[in-house]
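Database export, one record per block. Field names are fixed; values are copied verbatim from the stored entry.
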Amino acid sequence: MSMASVNPATGQTVKTFDENTDEQIDAAIGRARAAFLALRQTTFAQRAGWMTAAADLLEREIDDVARMMTTEMGKTLAAAKAEVTKCASGCRFYAANAERFLADEPADAAAVNATRAFTRYQPIGPVLAVMPWNFPLWQVIRFAAPALMAGNTGLLKHASNVPDTAVYLGELFTRAGFPAGAFETLLIDSKQVERVLSDPRVRAATLTGSERAGRSVAEIAGRELKKTVLELGGSDPFVVMPSADLDRAAEVATTARCQNNGQSCIAAKRFIVHTDVYDAFAEKFVAHMSALRVGDPMAGGTDVGPLATAQGREDVEKQVRDAVDRGARVLCGGTRPDAPGWFYPPTVVADLTPQMRMWSEEVFGPVAGLFRVSSYEEAVELANATAFGLGSNAWTREPAEQERFAVDLDAGAVFINGMTTSYPQLPFGGVKNSGYGRELSAWGIREFCNIKTVWLGEGAASAGTAHSE
């Protein structure tokens, strides 16, 4: 069996890769286990040096890496370069902060009848990462950087349509100085994930992907009693209230919907607008969406490239067609261009009803659903009327409303007067069917640690002076 790197702008196969054999999979797991035994004995300073070297490699190779990503999944070259830069920053962030995030935390010794008591964070071993194609570098780095800095090792099962990026990532950290096997790429089919996760040498798993994939991994991990972190889909609301800066809201709404060609879990997808400003916002939003240039993702002036797969475009087309057939209005876009590649134009659909698929399903492409509401309460009710709960946006200049949205929106993140974004400094994750656990910040690096209680009684030797994890 082989995996193919197919250019979505042309539909042509660029490169093929052989899938790993059972023997190669077992060998990779063995290397990850051996590397863990070595890595856990190193100091934060050593690991920080290697992680900084990985950042240096990303920055030096930015042009080649960006072109590789654009060729494999169609994001614009400018967006790909920005992703590489963000990955380098993420590596530097954990190189600088991991030791502080994982420092021993003292407890009240007297309250527990001890001379000293504290919490210690220690690595647990090889972690399987099942990652998606839409941010093929960043999704992996935001797991790999904290995991390696904690002293864990990683096994990457990347999406099958980005094998070139997967191979690059499998070599990056060894090139930077980490022990061989500290981060291994497995070129395997999704059917082989169970085999890897069931291996006793693999201690946990993290997955970013669909609900179906998340449920499957969670089921396997539950049977094996292994920790998981899941970041699944999203149908993020973008709420616009009467006091909002409509010009700025419409501009950001366009970026929030069409970033990464509309293929982002935290992209704004449902635009919920108060009736007092609905017509004005809709006019501005449609004008911005219509002005985006769709074309060759390698070209400098392109705003929106192709969708990553032919199936992905077909899914979006069916969702829009279903809405139109049931009475929705297309305010712009809505028709695929008659040209090679898997392109779909920025589209705004209004007059959506609960009978339409777009009402409840995530649309993974540059298509916005526009909703009219008459009150704050109706806006929040509609915003929360989804199985998902990843990110959310609210636009209002009223301080009281801002505080209410921060409390009332049922999501893992609430961004007021700005676009939902993942930052290394802030925890990232969702609620409801958007998954559980957190990536990034101190919360992300602690997810795959043994949170160990250490209690010392009278006469015990001091502990912690030689702590390196």
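Remark 1: DSSP finds 15 helices and 18 strands in the chain.
Remark 2: The first helix runs from residue 22 to 39.
End of record.
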